[in-house]
Fold each of these.
Amino acid sequence: MSTARPARVVPQLPVLLVLLVIAGGVAWLQFGDGTGDGGVNNAMSYGAAILSLAIYVLWFLLGSHQRVGVRVTGLLVGLALVGGAFFLVRVEGWSGSMIPYLRWAWEPERESRLPTAATIPGAGEPSIDLVTTGPLDFPGFLGPDRSAAVRGVTLERDWDAQPPQLEWTVACGSGWSGFAVVNGVAITHEQRRGQQVVVARAVADGAELWRYASPGMYQLQLAGDGPRATPFVHAGRVYAHDALGRLTCLDGRDGSLVWEHDLRAMYGMGKELEEKLVQFGRSPSPIVHDGRVLIAAGGDPDGKQAGLVAFDAETGELAWEGPPRQLSHASPNVVEIAGRTQVVVTNEDTVSGHDPSDGTLLWEHPWDGTTSASANNSQPTLVGNDRILVSKGYGQGSKLLRITADESGAFTAEELWANRRALRTKFTNPVVHEGHAYALSDGILSCVDLATGDRVWRDGRYGHGQVLLAGAGAAAVLLVLSEEGELLMVEPSPSAENSVLGRVQALEGRTWNTIALYGDRVVVRNAEEAACWRLAVVER
C-alpha cells in the first residue's frame, strides 16, 4: 500500500523575516538620519512595497498550504482589483514628495475647459501700458530684485478681523510659471491644447487682454506639463522662455512678436539630447539688465555650450556668450556683491559670478547637481554685501559662500559653512530676514541662523510650495503658498516657531508656482486655475 507524499510547504517564518527586513529598510528611509530626499525615499518605499507584495504573492501561490482553489481565487480577485483600479483611476501627476494625484478616469482633461490657444492680439489701447511702471510693480520671477521679498508693502497681520477677499478666479492652462505684474497687468505662461501661450490678464477682474501662442508641448507626468519660467516685463516688452527653450520678446501692448530665439537649436540640443540632459523642461526665467536679456542656455556637452547668454533687448541680436556650462533649473540674477555688479547663476554643478558687460567668469564654486536628476532649482541668494547662500533639495542642503576680491581685482569664493540638514529647497527658494533664512525645507517650514548655518526651528508641513517676504523690519510677514494651494501668513522670527497669523485656501490642486504680490493684491496660480486675493494693508 503506497502513501502519497505530502506537498512541500515553504515555511512561513523565512518569508516573514524577509518582509521584516524590507519594512525596516523602509522605516530607515522615512525616519533615518534626515539627510535624504523625501521624494526619493518615498519612491524607494514604493519599490519596497511592490517587492514585498510580490514575495508574499509568490509564497501564497507556490509555498503556502492553502488549497489550489483558494490560491487561484485569491489570484483572480487580486488581478481584478488591480485591473479595476487602472480602468477607474488615472494618475494626474505627482507631488514634490512623490505622492500621486489621482482622478477618476472619466473626468475630462483640464485643458478642454480652456479657449483655443490661437494667438489673439490685444487692441493696443493705452490702457494696456507696460511702459509706465511704479513702486508696487512685480516685474518678474521672485519680485523686483529676484529675492522673493517685497519690502514696500506692509500687510495687516490680523486676518480674523480683516480676512483676505477673493477678487477673481479663472481656469488656466498647465505649467509652473508664476505671474509678473506691472501697471495693473498680470502676465504668465501656460500650455493650452498643444501650444505654449503667454497670457496677459487685467489684475482688476482677471479678464484676458491678449495672448501669444507658439507651437509645441512639454509633457512629463512626473514633473507636470507646460512652461516653467516666469515672464519678465521691461520697458513695455515681455520676455518669456518656454519649456522647449524658445526665448520670445513680445510687445506688451498687444502681445505681438518682436523677436525670438530657439536656444535648443542655437546650442545643438536636439529633442533626444534635450530629454536626456534637461528632462524636467527648461525653467530659467529671463532678466533684463543694462539693455540686455540674460538667460541660461546650456547646450551639447560635446558641441556648443554657454552657461549664460545675453541678447540685445531691443533687437534680439546676440551680445555675448559666457563660458560653456550646462544649465540648471535656476535663473540668473544681477546683484551688487564684493563691490561689483555681477550676474550670479546656479549652473548644473557649480554656482558662478560673471561680468554683466561681456559674461566673463569672475568666480566659481562647486555645487553638485545633475539637471536631469538631482537638479539645482533654487536661486543663489544675496546675504549682506559679500555673501551668497545656495540651497537645494535631494538631500544636499545649503552652503554660505563669501565672495572677496584681492588688490588685483581677482575674486575668490570661500565656503563659510555647509549643512545638509538645513534649507533643502527642492522647488522653492529661501528668503533672508534679519540674519536668518526662511524656507520650505523638504516641505517643512524652517528657520536657519545665517551666521552659523544651524537650524533654529523646523515646523509646519506645507509641502513643496513657495514663500515670499512682505514688508520690512518688525512689520515683515512671510507669505507661504502650500503645495495644496493654501495661503498662510507666518511670523518670520527665530523665536516664533511656525507662528501662523492667518490662512485661506487660495487655490485647489497641486501648486508649485511662485507668489506675486502687487500692492494689496496676491496673484497666484497653479496648473489648473489662477486667482487674485486682496489683502488688507497698513495705511501710511
Amino acid sequence: MSELPATIGTAAGARRPGTWWSDCPVPRSRREAHFGDRVVHCFTPRARSFHDLFSAAVATHGEREALVCGEERYSWRALDERVARVAGGLAERGIAPGDRVALFVGNRAEFVVALFATQRLGAIAVPIGIREPRAGLGWILAHCGARALFHDAALADRVPDAGELERLALRISCDGAVGSSEPFVALEAAAPLREAAPRGEEDPAVLLYTSGTTGRPKGAVLTHLNIVHSVVHFVAGMRLAEEDRSLLAVPASHVTGLIANIASLAGCGGTLVIMPSFKAADFLALAARERITHSLMVPAMYNLALLQPDFADHDLSAWRIGGYGGAPMPVATIDALAERLPNLVLMNAYGATETCSPTTMMPAGLTREHADSVGVALPCARIAVVDDEGRELAAGEVGELWIAGPMVVRGYWEDEAATAREFTAGWWHSGDLGSVDSEGFVRVFDRKKDMLNRGGYKIFSVEVENQIVAMPGVVEAAVVGRPCPVLGERVHAFVCTDDPALEAEAVRAWCAGRLADYKVPETVTLTREPLPRNPNGKLLKRLLREAIAAQCAAQ
C-alpha cells in the first residue's frame, strides 16, 4: 500500500469516494503530492493556512458577531483587534515563527484570542487539556520545547517553576499576574501586529498531544493543510453558513472543539458561543438564549440533556445540526431527540486527533436508518480495511481501518519510531476494527485491544455497550474482559446509572434478550459515579481492566 491507486480504500462494489457528497458545496479536488511520499486528493481552490481562514472571516463578516462568552461579545473585527494586539505583545517578547506556544487554558475567549494570535505570528499552538496534572504538563512542555505558556490563574500551581524548563521564557496568566506569570492584558498594550508571518501549507500549525492511555502521549503535528481540509469537510458536510451559531461545550483544547467548533466557525464566518464547562441544565438554557443552531458532542451529553426535567421548557427550535462522535448514539436517544426536536438533524462524525477530526460523516437524514454506522468517507478521505498483514479486505469484511487524505497528520513531534510504526506511506493505522459495506457505510466495532476473546469467541465490547446504554436508567457503560483461567476472558460490564433501584441481574436479563449468550455480561459493576476519563474525555478502559483484575486477584 505504498501508493494510492484509484480503487484503494473503496470497498468492492461501493460508491466511489465522495459521491455521497456530490450535492455538497465543496471545491473540486485533484491529486497532489504532499509530505514527501504521499499523494492525496486535495480541494482546489482552498485557503493556504489556518490564519487565512480567520482573516477571510474578518474581511467578509467583520461586523457580524464572532464570539460570545458569558457577558463578552465580539464582532469578527473586534476579535481581530484583540488578536493583533496579543500577537504584537508576543512578538515584542521574542516569540517568533515556529516557536511553540502552549495553551493551558479552559473554554474562554482568551483561548480563542491566543490561538489566532499564535497563528498570526507563524508560531505553533500547543493546546493542553486543563485536567492535565503537573507532571504531565511539565513533560509536554519539555517535549515540544515550548517558549511561551498561557494558563488560567486557577491552574498556576501546576505550572512549572521558572527554573524547571530552560526554554519556557514567557508565562501569561489569563486572569491577572500570578507568581512569575504576567497578565494577559499586558500583551494587549502592545502595538498591533497586522500582517501574518508567511507559513507553508505543510508547516505545523498546532501540536495536539494524544490521550496517552498507555505510556507517554504523542504530539500529533496538525499542519495548515490538515486543518483547512477538515474545516472544508465540516462546513460543507454540515452546510454551515454565516448565520450558524455553534455552542462549544466540549474542551477547546481537544481536536473536536478546536476544529469542529472554533476553526469551522471561522471557516463559515458564523458565531462561536463558549461554555466554560458542560452542565446539562446550563447547556439547555444557553442554547435557548443564544439561539444555537449547531453542536458537536459525545452521545452521553445529549442523553444528559434529555434527562433534564425542564427540557421541554427551553425553546430549542433554532437547533438544526447535532453532530456527535466518540461513541455510538443509542437508537433510543435518536428517537427521543427526533420526538422532542423534530428539526434537529443528528450527524455522526468519526475521526481522531491524527485525522484532524473528521474522516467520515453521516449524510443528513440517514442517521436513524444507519444507526450502527459512523457514516461514509468525506470527499477527500480514503478508508481501507486491512488484515494483520496490511492486505486490503473485501466489502463487509472486518479488519483494521487505515485512513489517508490531506487531513491526516504528517506524524508525531520528535517521535520517528511512533511515526514509522503508525503510518504507512501516509495511511494512518487507526487501531479501530471495522468494515465498509457495499454502499460505503463505515462501521467501527472496537479498538483492536478492546476486543474480548472468550474461549475462542470474539466479542466486540461496543456491541454489548450499545445494548446496555439503550436500557432505561443507564447513563453510560463500558465492557472489559474479566480474567479467567479457563476461558481467558469473561464479559464484565461497568454501568453508570441514575436509577438507584437498578440491579445487576436486570442488566444481565436485558442483554440476554438481545445478545448471543456468550456476549451477555456474567458480572456487572453498578455505579452512580461517571466512568473514568482522561483530560480529553476519552474513556479509560485501562483503569477499569486494572480494577477488575485486582478484584479477581483478591478473591
